[in-house]
Amino acid sequence: MGSSVSGLPHNTQVRITSEGRSGVIHFENPQSTFSMWWEFAGAGALAIINIPSVAQWESTTKLPLSQREDVLRIIGEHVVRTQTSGRGRYDVDEQFITVYADTTV
Asked: Which domain of life is it from (predicted)?
């Protein structure tokens, strides 16, 4: 499924691979291909995804810093949609995307 946000191409893809209690998030578009590890979390969170810091963003992703927020939103929305049946949420901080499943459903 493609996304087009703030200069990101329609053919942007996010894939999730699992290796037991952890795995890799793969991001790909014509401008860049990069991966980030994820693992199952505790304390009410479903998973955490390790993201490049602001200082590391451009060297790690080969994307301009101006696209960081949009890229992380695309990744967060994809994970919520595919891993929580769309009934979750996510938060982004400097190091992680934290994904929460909605347990009230």
From this structure: Bacteria
Residue 71 lies in a domain: yes
Residue 92 is part of which domain span? 13-101
| Domain count along the chain | 1
Residue 1 is assigned to a structural domain of this protein: no
pLDDT in tens, the chain (105 residues): 333 344 455 789 999 999 999 999 999 999 999 999 999 998 889 999 999 999 999 999 999 999 999 999 999 999 999 998 778 999 999 999 999 998 654
